[in-house]
Amino acid sequence: MEILTFALHLHRMSILPKILMLCQRLGGEVTYVSAADGRANIVVAAPREAAHRFSPQIRRLIDVLELTELHAVGLADTESQSSQERLRHTA
Question: Taking the model in full, what pTM does it have?
């Protein structure tokens, strides 16, 4: 599974249930939703083989004015680098 995070600007909030149903139809599992005032943030666990389909399909919906796919920065890499730096400083 691949984690996808979307920030959406919606013309009407009534499109949100359709977006969530679309995510499920594509084989994803919606894990987080936050929405207010025409804006929504959605996190979806998507199968790797279908992950590339989510963004274009959501973008095609008429009431989706803007869609931004957010990518998390690798925190594990940052933590391991900082712990290595600490070891160097203490040695």
Answer: 0.74
